[in-house]
Amino acid sequence: MRSEPRSGLGLSLATLGVLLFLHLPLAVIALYAFTTEESSFTFPPPGLTLRWFGAAWQRDDLWRALILSLEVAAAATGAALVLGTLAAAAVWRSRFFGREAVSFLLLLPIALPGIVTGIALRSALGLGEIPFSFWTIVVGHATFCVVVVYNNVLARFRRTGTSLLEASMDLGADSFQTFRWVVLPNVATALLAGGMLAFALSFDEIIVTTFTAGQQETLPIWIFSQLARPRARPVTNVAALLVVVVTAVPILLAHRWTRED
Amino acid sequence: MSRLQALSTFLYRRPRLALALLLGPPLLWLGVVYLGSLGALLLQSFFQLDHYTGQVVREPTLATWRALASRANLDIVLRTAGMATAVTLAAAVLAFPLAFYMAFRASRRVKALLYLAVMLPLWSSYLVRVYAWKLILAKEGILTWFLARLHLSGAVDGVLALPWIGGPSLSLSPVGMFLAFLYVWLPYMVLPVEAALERVPRSLLEASEDLGAQAGTTFRRVILPLAVPGVVAGSLFTFSLTLGDFIVPSVLGNSSYFIGQAVLAHQGTSGNLPLAAAFTMVPMAVMAVYLLLARRAGALDAL
Description:
The complex is a heterodimer. By secondary structure, chain A is mainly alpha-helical. Chain A has helices at 5-32, 51-57, 60-93, 99-111, 114-128, 134-160, 163-170, 175-203, 207-212, 219-226, 233-258. Chain A has one domain (55-258): MetI-like fold. Chain A has eleven helices and no strands. In chain A, helix 7 runs antiparallel to helix 8. Chain B has helices at residues 2-13, 15-44, 63-68, 71-105, 108-123, 126-137, 142-149, 153-161, 174-198, 202-210, 215-243, 247-252, 259-267, 273-296, and strands at 48-50, 55-57. In chain B, 76% of the residues lie in helices and 2% in strands.
């Protein structure tokens, strides 16, 4: 489309502005992890230091929260990988009544506000008189992680088509051999990418977790509880940076593995 | 191996059984855990809390729903809906230039980069991104420093002095919440708008130019109407996410509750799970109506 050069400049500037709005705040997080100021958010920082990383390293409560978050994310990702792949395989191989409804049902937990999923699970725990545990967190997380794996794997299935499967079966392989030697290598990177995204989603989730964790503290809940305490600010800033890094890496990897060249 | 082969053949001959085995676990999980929980939620809202014993009375009653309709609770609902509307409108305005640039101007390479630039914040920690605004908006923080350089400090004080949207400082005011909401939900608006613009047939733009329309006219009469489904799809996210959030108001808000905070408080310290459940039905009902309207407008195809 042709247009006036001046409107082009205005558009570029507006685009740049929106991009800065989307990304500068994360740079702020990185900067404040190094500030020497302890109890306020003074800008510019009076000095820079690595001290808080050492202080964070020695905080047992931070370690416990980090480890719990990693364990929950690993377990939820595992469940999501199995359930998401099964659902994707079913939707891909067969046509059946209610096929569209399956996609919708899987999407629902992330389409509805997190608070709905959270309070719904909390209501069920209350009615069933089920005590909070590690597994109540995992169940909540897996519920909204399934769709990420499902979408990734189904997209890969659709792209590869069925001819390879037919060739494998024609050559005498049974369905397990076909799965092991044809299907799995084909969807491996999609599984990995879906798993990475599910992991990132679970690792920094806070809304659903608030309702299913009881007294347990995952890393986001730990950070949230620290926000009310001014003295803890430097360590909170370090933890915030840690969350950004731990989630950004799997997201970038997932992006690499699913890029369509 | 032979036993596996036998099993394979057995399943191959019974595609219905194979399908049931594949579909069973995920459907059971979501059907029982998720739909079951939603049912439990609905059920809870028809119980009520006995304020003397602090126990939930498990007998069907409409008392909790009547309590929800009180003046104070309606204020909470209206306050949240007002914020969600403001955030949605602003997100649509801000998303447009970026989406337009991605769809019409950017080369393939740049488009891929921009796509990543929008996706990355979408997936990265939302709590931390809200927290970043606490740092930015703090009294001694970046924004104050920056505005002082521009000699605009007076303007901020003026905004903060306004009724409704003002507050003691930017980090404790509806203005601050608005900025943080806008920032965290903006990618959800950019992506569907971009997808809608991407699907505008280029031939229509040429036809419009051939018929003598200026660039501005083409934009208003051709591009904008075709982008509407994308904006509606994006607004589904921004509106729904704002309605159900309690992190932004807890980190940046003042003492006036939002729906999410009310739900959190009722299910937590006061143990009034029925009222928390009834409160959650508000965003669900609003979103259900909104979804139906959006579907009629054909906006869901743009997702």
